């Protein structure tokens, strides 16, 4: 890391040399888009030869760090550093102010109970959504059918052609009202409940539990939530 940082310092202009360590970290991270933008904005070339890449790989192997784990290591290091800085400058009247959250974390993010609790919460939400949506869907269907009868009656008074009646009633009106009656109630139930899970902290913990599965599936995991000692980012 130090050798890579020294080489990058030589490439940077005087007013940008303080960014050498950050650029070195991005070089280890291997994010091509970021590296291309760095080269474009700073007008430098960060390409390393095969020997240097081999040295980097060997050093990572010595530290028992895999390429795909570098980003996680960086994020963890940043959060640990932020936590240490916070401890130095912030004082609390109650040192165990977040003890309850820690206990909840141990349960909801544990390997034993985390996934079963997640399945239970999501199952209850889906059950409430499906069962609870039946009643408002039925009410909306009856309301729209009542309105349809009145529209058909008005069309008959004005002798509206059958083809136009079919397009407006059987085509447009029935399609729109069916979608509203079927889709609106579950959405009106599901999203507030899902938002409630997020507000009380369940959803971020679910994201944490699923992070390794997102990683195995090749997801970017940008929607995942990291938790380090109770800090959510």
What are the salient characteristics of this protein?
233 residues; mainly alpha; 2 domains; two-stranded antiparallel sheet; 9 helices; elongated; disordered C terminus
Instruction: Tell me the total number of β-strands.
Output: 2
Largest sheet: 2 strands, antiparallel
The structural domain count equals 2
Helix fraction, binned, reads over 70%
Order of helices and strands: HHHHHHHHHEE
Low-confidence segments, given as residue ranges, are 224-233
| Outline | elongated
Report the mean per-residue pLDDT as an integer: 80
Outline the secondary-structure elements.
Layout lengths: L1 H10 L8 H10 L2 H11 L7 H13 L7 H20 L9 H10 L5 H44 L4 H38 L2 H15 L10 E2 L2 E2 L1
Antiparallel strand pairs: 1-2
Commentary on this structure:
This protein has 233 residues and is mostly helical. It has two domains: 2-67, no CATH class; 114-232, no CATH class. Helices cover 73% and strands 2% of the residues. The protein is built from nine helices and two strands, in the order αααααααααββ. It has helices spanning 2-11, 20-29, 32-42, 50-62, 70-89, 99-108, 114-157, 162-199, 202-216; strands at 227-228, 231-232. A two-stranded antiparallel sheet has the order 1-2. Strand 1 and strand 2 (231-232) form a beta hairpin. Helix 7 runs antiparallel to helix 8 (162-199). The longest helix has 44 residues, at 114-157. It is elongated and about 85 Å long. The two termini are 26 Å apart. Mean pLDDT is 80; it is low at 224-233.
Brief overview, please?
By secondary structure, the chain is mainly alpha-helical.
């Amino acid at each position: 890391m130090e050798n890579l940082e020294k080489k990058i310092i030589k490439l940077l202009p005087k007013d940008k040399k303080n960014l050498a360590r950050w650029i070195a970290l991005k070089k280890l991270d291997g994010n091509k888009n970021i590296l291309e933008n760095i080269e474009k904005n700073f007008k430098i070339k960060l390409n390393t030869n095969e020997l240097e890449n081999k040295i980097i790989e060997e050093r990572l192997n010595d530290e028992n760090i895999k390429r795909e784990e570098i980003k996680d290591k960086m994020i963890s290091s940043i959060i640990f550093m932020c936590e240490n800085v916070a401890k130095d400058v912030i004082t609390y009247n109650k040192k165990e102010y977040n003890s309850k959250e820690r206990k909840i974390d141990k349960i909801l993010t544990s390997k034993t109970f985390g996934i079963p609790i997640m399945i239970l919460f999501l199952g209850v939400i889906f059950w409430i959504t499906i069962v609870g949506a039946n009643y408002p869907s039925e009410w909306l269907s009856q309301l729209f059918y009542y309105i349809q009868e009145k529209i058909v009656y008005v069309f008959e008074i004005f002798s509206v052609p059958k083809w136009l009646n079919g397009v407006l009633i059987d085509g447009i009106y029935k399609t729109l009202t069916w979608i509203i009656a079927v889709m609106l109630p579950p959405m009106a139930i599901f999203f507030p409940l899902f938002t409630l899970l997020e507000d009380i902290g369940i959803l971020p913990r679910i994201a944490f539990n699923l992070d390794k599965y997102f990683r195995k599936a090749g997801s970017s995991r940008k929607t995942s939530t990291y938790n380090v000692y109770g800090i959510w980012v």
